[in-house]
Write a structure and sequence with these properties.
With about 120 residues, this protein is of the alpha/beta class. It is built from 4 helices and 4 strands.
């Protein structure tokens, strides 16, 4: 089954704030774990979630994993991203759309936070 990874960030009017997600997408593409890797933004930047989801389907995705590039499961993840997942699933009934949990309480975040703190001293 051809699986796409669709990363979703909040989005910003400042392009440099969106560039981190685009850089991560390029790294993930090079790693090759997913046939398709796309970036998307909830608001304030493009591509939108719907545009990027449609692009995944256009590249032959049979399953799309929507991965929130968010630290917590707030309103955006629980309500807004679920709504986008549902709309994409309705628009493309032959494709499976799955919403992954946000980065949240993943154990590696502790290591990242500790590393970043050490970099400032």
């Amino acid at each position: 089954m051809k699986t796409a990874l669709l990363l979703i960030a909040h989005g910003s009017r400042h392009q440099e704030a969106n560039d981190d997600l685009h850089a991560l997408v390029e790294d993930l593409r090079k790693a090759g774990a997913y046939a398709i890797v796309e970036a998307s933004f909830l608001e304030l930047a493009e591509p939108s979630i719907d545009m990027a989801g449609t692009a995944c389907v256009g590249q032959g995705a049979e399953r799309v994993i929507l991965l929130p590039y968010f630290l917590s499961a707030g309103v955006h993840v629980k309500r807004d991203l679920q709504r986008h997942r549902d709309e994409l699933a309705q628009q493309f009934p032959g494709v499976e759309f799955l919403l992954a949990p946000p980065l949240g309480r993943h154990p590696l975040l502790r290591e990242i936070v500790t590393q970043r703190a050490k970099e400032t001293t």
